[in-house]
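Q: My labmate handed me this sequence with no annotations at all. I'd like to see what the chain might look like in three dimensions before we decide whether it's worth expressing. Could you predict it?
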Amino acid sequence: MLILLAFIIIFHITSAAFLFIATIDNAWWVGDGFFTDLWCSCFNETNCTLIDEQFPEYPAIQAMQATMILATIFCCLAFFIFILQLFRLKQGERFVLTSFIQLLSCLCVMIAASIYTDRHEELHMGNFYNYNVNSGQFGYSYILAWIAFTFTLISGIMYLILRKRK
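A: Here is what I predict for the chain of 166 residues:
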């Protein structure tokens, strides 16, 4: 049982780490000489422009920013609630609250990645600083967001099924 508990904790911490990296790092859309994320677009690795109201797709970007931050907060909150429930729940009870919050995290990261998948062409239209942004590809932060979605979904279901046993 101790090995299962260690696996669950490591799995949850890995999910949170993936969410942090996907939210913070500059690699949602990458190409030759440029990279973008949810917060800024960088060209020549030194010329970075913050994404603000000047961008035509700013409401979509704000939705992605908010849902990725919420996903990270929910994932961390679910971990702390799991630790509290681990010591407070009676034997045989399920981790329903932890599961619910982890599934909320899953939903938030799915919404953010889905919006980005749907709108990435509008987000990166045109040429900036003599770079053809359309020639880029999805970066590893985008891929980590989808992996984090899968991990949070699996752990949310795992917490729902898991019962506290001796």
